[in-house]
Amino acid sequence: MKLIDSQNSDVAILGNIVIRRPRHIEAIAGVRRESTVLPRLRDLVVLPIPEMQLVEIGDEVIALHQQLPGESLWSVENLPDLTQEGLAAQLGSFLKSLHDIEPISVSALELPHIDQSWWRNFRERAEQLVFPELASTNAEALRSQIESHIEELPNLPCTLRHGDFGSSNILWDGEKTITGIIDFASLGWGEPGWDIAGLYASYGSPFVERLASTYPGVKSFLERAPFYRLMFALMDAVFGAEHSDQKIFNCGLTTLNLVA
Q1: Dist CA 157 CA 17 (whole Å)
Q2: How do beta strands 170-172 and 178-181 pair?
Q3: In angstroms, rounded to a whole number, what is the distance separating the alpha carbons of residues 17 and 65?
Q4: What whole-number distance in Å separates Cα of residue 260 and Cα of residue 254?
């Protein structure tokens, strides 16, 4: 049995079966959402995604799915240009297929909406739990950026987005092929630049620009990628504070103090 370090769940791989035990109520909601929505998405996206089954034992919820082939694409830094172009084209095709899904296709599902109310709530939690631990200038800069984003949000596109589209959730065969996308627990409606920012944080701007071959217009999303990258660190800090996870809290705080 192989144990995997995960922020929201206890994860083990037994043979070719991935076993996830969500640790808290938000994670339980996430795996329930995954088990419901993944069958709807399977024929709508262009890359393999898991087939999940839930097992409930008393108050415990266990998520099971067959392990997809491949390993996480942790970095593209040392890959040849041609390989990077091919991987970017596959990821661009996937994101476009996901972001283009019409609401009617998943209308029966209750999915979170990352709207102005969500951001106001998040700002309030950050004000209480994280900003007091930051230099006042850093806290004020974050506060101002969040407020600007809230004001701008009604003018931005809203699509179905993965919500955690980073290196750990992108699988490849070690050569040139993306073999699957995993962890849809954060799936919901929101600004598609959130997913682009996940790639930006993992692989950098030049790689993301290569997605344009299959996802025209992706470069416009890069304008907000630095903002989202800051927000990912702030989300980690808020999560760590709310779940008494000092390691995650400190990690988020360190990033914010370096770049805010």
Answers
A1: 37
A2: antiparallel
A3: 6
A4: 10
DSSP 27-68: HHHHHHHHHHHHHHHTTTSSS----EEEEEETTEEEEEEEPP
What does the pLDDT profile of the chain (260 residues) look like in tens digits?
787 878 899 999 999 999 999 999 999 999 999 999 999 999 999 999 999 999 998 889 999 999 999 999 999 999 999 999 999 999 999 999 999 999 988 887 889 999 999 999 999 999 999 999 999 999 999 999 999 999 999 999 999 999 999 999 999 999 999 999 999 999 999 999 999 999 999 999 999 999 999 999 899 999 999 999 999 999 999 999 999 999 999 999 999 988 76
Q: Locate tokens 């087939």: which residue? A: 51
Of 161, 162, 180, give the one whose Cα is nearest residue 170: 180
